[in-house]
């Protein structure tokens, strides 16, 4: 660690420093940084009071590695070149705030045979295996885990490894472990064998869950029956942007409404949320989230959009047609004991229709977890590794 700090210090040099009008000016690597006294006081953590900062005395000491300033309270602050570099010289865009979040690799249907498989038991005890999984999730948004027992509750073992699980709502109730199971009297579409168009889950809440795990406990034995479709929504959005920039513009500019509700004895809710179908990052360059769900989209709000309904629907169908294009969709049939992990607002999921025959059961268990949990865990593991 000490060696790394000295590398940073050598890379950044202070050539001049002065205090004037309660502003500290520092020439760092030939770029002048003008820093208000309040910022220095606040960030050097002399005080937790947000009300005021004392005055900076004009007398300071500096050398190429450090500036020492004096405060009217008698305190001193030492400001190193590396601290200045960390706070001022390194541009920080949204995509750079999170460890390993700027290397998205788009994929199409040929990625099916390349999806990497991680080992469930190794994930429970080996930090590097877990870090590799987080990297794969960040770059491609999809991966497989094998070696879990084909029994209920296995996903809960990942709770502490993935940070913390997310509670979600569905028509069966509030839980951090959900079941997708073909049953005789289903209350949700998920528990039938009907076709599901490619969609994301939980678009009807403001903070949509980031990642999902599907653990296969029981599977329909017939070929293809019970398989799922998966598609890289970012890759398709990129394709749309090149093919029809106007359609891309419409889908990324106007929020639409999503809603869901239940009124049962054990679960009552009425959710509403608004997202553009293609949500862009703060630089308005990259798509950072896809919000699409034909069973949760509310048509009421659409009529208030600025572009005409004709234009909006033309753009919408162009995107959904591309999503279902064989060039972009992969079909994965999970075997008992396998887990599919994917980024919910990037990798859209659905399934072809299958006949739910008597005596045959398709049973998946599912957990959700958020980006914050993954990054929190990842930062901690990286710090442990570097120590
Ligand atoms: Fe779903």
Describe the structure.
- The chain has 387 residues and is of the alpha+beta class.
- It folds into two domains: 2-90, NE0471 N-terminal domain-like; 109-386, Clavaminate synthase-like (Double-stranded beta-helix, 4-Layer Sandwich).
- Helix content is 26%, strand content 31%.
- It is built from ten helices and 22 strands.
- It has helices at residues 2-11, 37-43, 81-89, 120-125, 127-139, 233-243, 245-253, 299-302, 309-323, 371-386; strands at 14-20, 23-28, 31-36, 56-63, 66-71, 76-80, 117-119, 142-146, 168-170, 173-175, 178-181, 196-199, 211-218, 228-232, 255-263, 268-276, 278-280, 287-290, 329-332, 339-343, 347-351, 363-369.
- A six-stranded mixed sheet has the order 7-8-20-13-22-11. It has a four-stranded antiparallel sheet with strand order 12-21-14-19.
- Strand 17 and strand 18 (287-290) form a beta hairpin.
- Helix 6 (233-243) crosses helix 7 (245-253) and helix 6 packs across helix 9 (309-323).
- It binds fe (ii) ion.
- Fe (ii) ion (FE2) is lined by residues 199, 201, 349.
């Amino acid at each position: 660690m000490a060696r790394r700090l000295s590398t940073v210090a050598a890379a950044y040099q202070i050539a001049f420093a002065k205090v004037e009008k309660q502003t500290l000016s520092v020439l760092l690597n030939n770029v002048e940084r003008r820093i208000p006294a309040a910022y220095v006081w606040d960030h050097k953590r002399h005080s937790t009071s947000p009300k005021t900062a004392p005055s900076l005395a004009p007398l300071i000491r500096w050398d190429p590695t450090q500036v020492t300033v004096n405060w009217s309270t008698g305190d001193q602050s030492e400001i190193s070149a590396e601290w200045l570099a960390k706070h001022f010289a390194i541009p920080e865009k949204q995509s750079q705030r999170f460890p390993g979040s700027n290397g998205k690799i788009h994929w199409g249907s040929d990625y099916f045979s390349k999806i990497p498989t991680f080992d469930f038991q190794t994930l429970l005890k080996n930090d590097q295996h877990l870090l590799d999984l987080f990297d794969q999730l960040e770059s491609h948004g999809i991966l497989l885990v094998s070696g879990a027992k084909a029994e209920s509750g296995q996903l809960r073992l990942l709770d502490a490894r993935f940070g913390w699980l997310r509670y979600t709502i569905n028509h069966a109730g509030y839980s951090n472990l959900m079941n997708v199971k073909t049953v005789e009297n289903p209350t949700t579409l998920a528990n039938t064998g009907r076709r599901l168009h490619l969609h994301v889950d939980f678009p009807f809440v403001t903070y949509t869950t980031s990642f999902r795990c599907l653990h296969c406990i029981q599977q329909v034995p017939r070929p293809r029956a019970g398989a799922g479709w998966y598609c890289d929504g970012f890759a398709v959005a990129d394709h749309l942007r090149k093919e029809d920039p106007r359609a891309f513009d419409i889908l990324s500019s106007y929020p639409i409404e999503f809603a869901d509700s239940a009124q049962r004895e054990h679960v009552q809710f009425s959710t509403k949320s608004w997202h553009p179908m293609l949500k862009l990052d703060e630089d308005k360059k990259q798509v950072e989230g896809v919000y699409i769900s034909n069973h949760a989209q509310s048509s009421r709000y659409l009529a208030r959009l600025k572009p005409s309904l004709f234009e909006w629907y033309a753009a919408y169908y162009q995107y959904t047609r591309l999503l279902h294009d064989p060039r972009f969709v992969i079909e994965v049939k999970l075997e008992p004991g396998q887990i599919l992990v994917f980024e919910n607002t990037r990798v859209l999921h659905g399934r072809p229709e299958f006949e739910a025959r008597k005596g045959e059961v398709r049973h998946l268990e599912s957990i959700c977890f958020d980006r914050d949990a993954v990054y929190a865990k990842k930062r901690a593991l990286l710090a442990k590794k570097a120590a």
